[in-house]
Amino acid sequence: xxxxxxxxxxxxxxxxxxxxxxxxxxxxxxxxxxxxxxxxxxxxxxxxxxxxxxxxxxxxxxxxxxxxxxxxxxxxxxxxxxxxxxxxxxxxxxxxxxxxxxxxxxxxxxxxxxxxxxxxxxxxxxxxxxxxxxxxxxxxxxxxxxxxxxxxxxxxxxxxxxxxxxxxxxxxxxxxxxxxxxxxxxxxxxxxxxxxxxxxxxxxxxxxxxxxxxxxxxxxxxxxxxxxxxxxxxxxxxxxxxxxxxxxxxxxxxxxxxxxxxxxxxxxxxxxxxxxxxxxxxxxxxxxxxxxxxxxxxxxxxxxxxxxxxxxxxxxxxxxxxxxxxxxxxxxxxxxxxxxxxxxxxxxxxxxxxxxxxxxxxxxxxxxxxxxxxxxxxxxxxxxxxxxxxxxxxxxxxxxxxxxxxxxxxxxxxxxxxxx
Length: 420
Ligand code: EPU
Prior knowledge:
Elements: E1 2-7, E2 12-17, H1 22-32, E3 38-42, H2 48-59, E4 63-67, E5 70-74, H3 85-88, H4 96-105, E6 107-111, H5 124-132, E7 136-140, E8 143-147, E9 155-157, H6 163-173, E10 179-183, H7 189-200, E11 204-206, E12 212-216, E13 225-227, H8 232-245, E14 246-252, H9 260-268, E15 273-275, E16 279-282, E17 293-294, H10 303-313, E18 318-323, H11 332-339, E19 343-348, E20 351-356, E21 364-366, H12 370-382, E22 386-390, H13 393-396, H14 402-408, E23 412-417
Parallel strand pairs: 2-14, 3-13, 9-10, 17-18, 21-22
Antiparallel strand pairs: 1-22, 1-23, 3-5, 4-5, 6-8, 7-8, 10-12, 11-12, 14-16, 15-16, 18-20, 19-20
Bound molecules: uridine-diphosphate-2(N-acetylglucosaminyl) butyric acid (EPU).
Residues 23, 26, 92-93, 116, 118-126, 160, 162-165, 186, 303-304, 326-327, 370-371, 398 line the site of uridine-diphosphate-2(N-acetylglucosaminyl) butyric acid.
């Protein structure tokens, strides 16, 4: 267990380089299992979710070599074993092994995945999609047994544009007989990144990044080199942070198009940004205007930036409304922000009001999930005094080198191990 300790109220300046996307990398690694040869993935972030996937690959007897941010995976001798519940529960993305192993072996047994407690997080759309491809799904005490004589392409319309279901169904369909068409597919940048990876191996996927994805099944997937796309949620988190605590912070290695919805909200709040081809320079303005935000699937405002944005809104001059439409339980950070002096209130389970500006004071707070943790890091950096964020392990799941990156720009921040 870890805690993060921040001495706040320091202006930050300098450069921050964005790492590879967590939500892309956690799908690419299970996708690598589908390859019939060795694959190389570069720009993999060094975060604990990747360590958990590494553990799963090792358990399945894949050959894995990690060297810095590069990972080489050879799954030619992989075994189809039940991943122990303790490892599967370490992260949400363990469910991508359902699609990958089902595709490879026509049978998979998997426990219900883990992940941050931000809502019920059902996987019904994944399972319905597997069934549409010809699989039979049985569930016994949270253990899913999915079998198929063969997988055959089909038309699958998702009731909701789920990121996880879209990726899992691409994985399951990539070697199926015939053509699969996923409609109302998710359009997030990681969907495109995973489809490109599979295509680099010889898959025939078109339409990724639009709401209709077409997958023509192939028999063999060959070796390839692939790079993880820059993390647009990490990008957005540092942009928000720079908007409240930065002086000429330059955020590099970004794809501005992926954070367009955030850019437009920051502009509305009065933040001046110098946007380059793959970078953005931000200084915190004297005064921020309140803005309303509503989370939506990509390209709408991302739910994963809602919590860090809530911290920014505590500094805006007036009343902001935050409407969370994706997850049922993503406001727990507000209770912690209130402890630090913020004025926030839940209007309904999915709607909160934030009144600003509030002077935040350093306190002992707790990260309840990854992005709640990011929200508290931003708060700690602008608060007066010392903020101690307990349960910082959540933050390490998704932000590579956050302590080092922030120290580089002048923050007084440290990570400490807590005796259990
Ligand atoms: N949903 C269903 N049934 C399903 C699947 C999803 O009802 O079978 C619902 C969910 O309950 C939720 C909504 O659909 O209300 C969105 O779920 P989605 O499947 O899109 O989310 P996910 O794949 O479980 C990924 C990211 C999340 C991110 C969401 C939305 C990964 C590993 N996780 O989750 O990331 O919030 O997409 O963009 O890619 C994070 O990084 O902090 C994080 C939680």
